Amino acid sequence: MLALLVLLLLLPVLMPLYQASSWAFMASWDQLAASSVHCCLADDAAITSGGYYNRCALTEPRNLANNEALASALWERSEEAVAEFL
Q1: If DSSP codes are grouped into helix, strand and coil, which group holds residue 61?
Q2: What is the C-alpha to C-alpha distance for residues 29 and 59, in angstroms, rounded to an integer?
Q3: Which residues pair with 54 in a beta bridge?
Q4: CA–CA separation, 24 vs 11, rounded Å?
Q5: From CA 65, how far away is CA 69, in angstroms rounded?
Q6: What residues are paired with 57 via a beta bridge?
Q7: How many domains does the chain have?
Q8: What's the pLDDT tens digit per position in 48-63?
């Protein structure tokens, strides 16, 4: 309860700091779409099928993306979520 109270008291101070600094860490909509547009418009020889592209370059995904146990759990939960619609 005390932590919530402290957070509520600090919120007016923290929000402007977050808003002022978030531009340094966030990408614009154009930047976010650039890799998808690049993959759609590039020659077939320039694109690796099934590859992960970040900032228009073929990149290794983070370790979390290659976690087989997590992928299986996600697949199972996804099946459960849509089961009633199939």
Answers
A1: coil
A2: 20
A3: 57
A4: 21
A5: 10
A6: 54
A7: 1
A8: 988 999 889 999 988 8
